[in-house]
């Protein structure tokens, strides 16, 4: 029998004995073995994937102590209680303890009575603590929620930068293990660099959670939707995320008046209020938690049946982290994002409010646009998500997301697309969505008239639609890669090679339009909703004339976007 097989058997035995689980999950096995071989290891696994066991089992098998760096004091107690209940020697040290209690735990560690010690990253900056740790035999430092070390992530914590110097200060370098659910290249690079991982083994597993049905709903009356949905699912645990405290409070009040057992969570509440609220949710005293993104990091509640986003989050990482709190038990669950164009304004405002350098700002805007693209895509949402995170996957539809279950037929949008693209071309690719939409609408708006766009031959070619509809279509075209928005606060529409193909008549645009309404998408799918047959749209004579001209111009150009 090879050493590896023996190690694995022993690990499996411990898993069975302590946790009562018959086998490791995908990914866990590799991470456990990598650590036991003594490698620095980076484990990237979705929320609920089972990262804790990846360092807890090695902790039982390695000599000495495993120090766990964990960001939330509120969760340490739960985690440690769970471990001690299973008979594993574990403790935590944090600011909720008295000096006497801290000393007791340090002494226990000295006597070799602890396998796992949980601390917050701030603790690593404390001199006496560092000295104490230097006297112990530490085999492994496990960094949980390791993306907190990166400013590219969504929960940057300065004190995570103290991990690497702390590790270096130890007389003997332990194995460093880092865990997160955030998988983007920038964050991965930062974790390796800032935690100073040495030749790390990196394992990325399964962001795709087949039990999650992803939906994006545009054009909803959001408040009404939330109330109706929560009422219809009042027997199931759910989380509703809103961007502001004001919205949290408002939704919370409404849900309560509607007789739905709900709680709330945001940074404006006291620690006690938040802890009470969290506990009520964990123990099912309340069904619905209305919260800002302050709620949830590391929370292990497995039976959350739905996560509704009242607002679009700032980027895909944040979205997946939050939405991923649904269905950790593997049962079918819903992740619903309620999108409105106002959400984009809010996020831009927040980016502008945040003092930071130009690069970072540009990055925030880029990520925001990727989030918006997700909201407007008509592709399978799961595929879109996996593509974003660069995870390889079969090229097939999930069958359960709001794109896959959209029963409205595809309509031929080619003519609308051509009108839009020629307008952008005529306006020399120097304007943003709302201006282009106003021109196509034929708006009498002063700004439009002032630029003399009324003399433009594409002016008013889409007068049969509202400006909002036109903006929607443009956004879909951006999301589908026909158009690009330049970076920055006032993005400008640029034509992409795909748009050139459409203008040249080499490609047809098939879409489901306009925005679906919630009743159509969720639940009453059979109802014949309002349908708009766009292929019947009045075709403006001038557009053909336009197209002929543009095609001729394009023929002389190498490629369209400059
Ligand atoms: P993460 O930190 O990745 O979000 P956790 O470590 O909190 O996830 O684990 C999520 C849940 O999955 C926990 O309830 C845990 O007990 C369970 N779990 C982990 N590994 C296994 C396994 N091999 N078999 C069954 N359940 C597991
Ligand atoms: Mg965790
Ligand atoms: Zn799908």
Automatic annotation (TrEMBL):
<keyword id="KW-0347">Helicase</keyword>
<dbReference type="InterPro" id="IPR006293">
    <property type="entry name" value="DNA_helicase_ATP-dep_RecQ_bac"/>
</dbReference>
<dbReference type="InterPro" id="IPR001650">
    <property type="entry name" value="Helicase_C-like"/>
</dbReference>
<keyword id="KW-0227">DNA damage</keyword>
<dbReference type="Pfam" id="PF00270">
    <property type="entry name" value="DEAD"/>
</dbReference>
<dbReference type="Pfam" id="PF00271">
    <property type="entry name" value="Helicase_C"/>
</dbReference>
<dbReference type="InterPro" id="IPR002121">
    <property type="entry name" value="HRDC_dom"/>
</dbReference>
<keyword id="KW-0479">Metal-binding</keyword>
<feature type="region of interest" description="Disordered">
    <location>
        <begin position="514"/>
        <end position="534"/>
    </location>
</feature>
<dbReference type="GO" id="GO:0009378">
    <property type="term" value="F:four-way junction helicase activity"/>
</dbReference>
<dbReference type="GO" id="GO:0046872">
    <property type="term" value="F:metal ion binding"/>
</dbReference>
<keyword id="KW-0378">Hydrolase</keyword>
<dbReference type="Pfam" id="PF16124">
    <property type="entry name" value="RecQ_Zn_bind"/>
</dbReference>
<dbReference type="GO" id="GO:0006260">
    <property type="term" value="P:DNA replication"/>
</dbReference>
<dbReference type="InterPro" id="IPR032284">
    <property type="entry name" value="RecQ_Zn-bd"/>
</dbReference>
<dbReference type="InterPro" id="IPR044876">
    <property type="entry name" value="HRDC_dom_sf"/>
</dbReference>
<keyword id="KW-0234">DNA repair</keyword>
<keyword id="KW-0862">Zinc</keyword>
<keyword id="KW-0238">DNA-binding</keyword>
<dbReference type="GO" id="GO:0043138">
    <property type="term" value="F:3'-5' DNA helicase activity"/>
</dbReference>
<dbReference type="GO" id="GO:0030894">
    <property type="term" value="C:replisome"/>
</dbReference>
<dbReference type="InterPro" id="IPR014001">
    <property type="entry name" value="Helicase_ATP-bd"/>
</dbReference>
<dbReference type="GO" id="GO:0006281">
    <property type="term" value="P:DNA repair"/>
</dbReference>
<keyword id="KW-0413">Isomerase</keyword>
<dbReference type="InterPro" id="IPR036390">
    <property type="entry name" value="WH_DNA-bd_sf"/>
</dbReference>
<keyword id="KW-0233">DNA recombination</keyword>
<dbReference type="InterPro" id="IPR011545">
    <property type="entry name" value="DEAD/DEAH_box_helicase_dom"/>
</dbReference>
<dbReference type="GO" id="GO:0043590">
    <property type="term" value="C:bacterial nucleoid"/>
</dbReference>
<dbReference type="GO" id="GO:0006310">
    <property type="term" value="P:DNA recombination"/>
</dbReference>
<dbReference type="InterPro" id="IPR004589">
    <property type="entry name" value="DNA_helicase_ATP-dep_RecQ"/>
</dbReference>
<protein>
    <recommendedName>
        <fullName>DNA helicase RecQ</fullName>
        <ecNumber>5.6.2.4</ecNumber>
    </recommendedName>
</protein>
<dbReference type="Pfam" id="PF09382">
    <property type="entry name" value="RQC"/>
</dbReference>
<dbReference type="GO" id="GO:0016787">
    <property type="term" value="F:hydrolase activity"/>
</dbReference>
<dbReference type="InterPro" id="IPR018982">
    <property type="entry name" value="RQC_domain"/>
</dbReference>
<dbReference type="InterPro" id="IPR036388">
    <property type="entry name" value="WH-like_DNA-bd_sf"/>
</dbReference>
<dbReference type="Pfam" id="PF00570">
    <property type="entry name" value="HRDC"/>
</dbReference>
<comment type="similarity">
    <text>Belongs to the helicase family. RecQ subfamily.</text>
</comment>
<dbReference type="GO" id="GO:0003677">
    <property type="term" value="F:DNA binding"/>
</dbReference>
<keyword id="KW-0067">ATP-binding</keyword>
<dbReference type="GO" id="GO:0005737">
    <property type="term" value="C:cytoplasm"/>
</dbReference>
<keyword id="KW-0547">Nucleotide-binding</keyword>
<dbReference type="GO" id="GO:0005524">
    <property type="term" value="F:ATP binding"/>
</dbReference>
């Amino acid at each position: 029998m090879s050493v590896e097989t023996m190690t694995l058997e022993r690990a499996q035995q411990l898993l069975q004995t302590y946790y009562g689980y018959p086998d490791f999950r995908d990914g866990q096995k590799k991470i456990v073995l990598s650590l036991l071989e003594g490698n620095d290891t980076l484990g990237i696994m979705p929320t609920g994937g089972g990262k804790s066991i990846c360092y807890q089992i090695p902790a039982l098998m390695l000599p000495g102590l495993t120090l766990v760096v964990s960001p939330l004091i509120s969760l340490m107690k739960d985690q440690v209680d769970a471990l001690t209940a299973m008979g594993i020697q574990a403790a935590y040290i944090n600011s909720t303890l008295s000096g006497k209690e801290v000393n007791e735990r340090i002494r226990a560690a000295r006597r070799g009575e602890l396998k796992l010690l949980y601390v917050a990253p701030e603790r690593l900056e404390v001199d006496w603590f560092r000295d104490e740790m230097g006297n112990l035999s530490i085999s492994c430092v496990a960094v949980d929620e390791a993306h907190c070390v990166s400013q590219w992530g969504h929960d940057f914590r300065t004190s995570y930068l103290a991990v690497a110097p702390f590790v270096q200060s130890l007389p003997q370098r332990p194995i460093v293990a880092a865990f997160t659910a955030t998988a983007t290249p920038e964050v991965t690079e930062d974790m390796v660099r800032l935690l100073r991982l040495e030749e790390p083994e990196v394992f990325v597993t399964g962001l795709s959670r087949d039990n999650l049905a992803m939906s994006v709903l545009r054009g909803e009356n959001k408040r009404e939707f939330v109330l109706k949905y929560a009422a219809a699912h009042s027997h199931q645990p759910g989380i509703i995320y809103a961007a502001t405290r004001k919205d949290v409070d408002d939704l919370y009040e409404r849900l309560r008046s509607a007789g739905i057992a709900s709680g709330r969570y945001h940074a404006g509440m006291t620690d006690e209020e938040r802890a009470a609220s969290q506990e009520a949710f964990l123990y099912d005293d309340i069904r619905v938690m209305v919260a800002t993104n302050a709620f949830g990091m590391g929370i292990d509640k497995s039976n959350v049946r739905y996560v509704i986003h009242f607002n679009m989050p700032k980027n895909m990482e944040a979205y997946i982290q939050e939405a991923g709190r649904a269905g950790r038990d593997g049962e079918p669950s819903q992740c619903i994002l309620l999108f409105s164009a106002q959400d984009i304004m809010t996020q831009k405002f927040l980016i502008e409010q945040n003092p930071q350098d130009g690069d970072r700002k540009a990055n925030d805007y880029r990520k925001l646009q990727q989030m918006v693209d997700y909201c407007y895509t008509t592709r399978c949402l799961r595929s879109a998500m996996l593509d974003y995170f660069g995870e390889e996957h079969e090229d097939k539809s999930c069958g359960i997301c709001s794109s896959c279950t959209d029963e409205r037929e595809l309509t031929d949008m080619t003519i609308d697309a051509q009108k839009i693209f020629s307008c952008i071309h005529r306006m020399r690719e120097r304007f943003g969505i709302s201006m282009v939409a106003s021109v196509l609408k034929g708006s009498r708006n002063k700004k439009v008239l002032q630029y003399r766009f009324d003399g433009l031959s594409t002016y008013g070619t889409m007068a049969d639609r509202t400006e909002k509809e036109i903006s929607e279509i443009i956004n879909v075209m951006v999301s589908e890669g026909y158009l690009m928005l330049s970076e920055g606060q006032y993005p400008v529409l640029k034509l992409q090679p795909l748009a050139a193909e459409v203008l040249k008549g080499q490609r047809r645009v098939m879409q489901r339009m306009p925005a679906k309404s919630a009743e159509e998408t969720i639940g009453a799918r059979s109802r014949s909703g309002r349908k708009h047959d766009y292929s019947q749209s009045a075709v403006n004579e001038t557009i053909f004339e336009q197209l002929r001209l543009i095609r001729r111009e394009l023929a002389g150009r190498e490629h369209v976007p400059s």
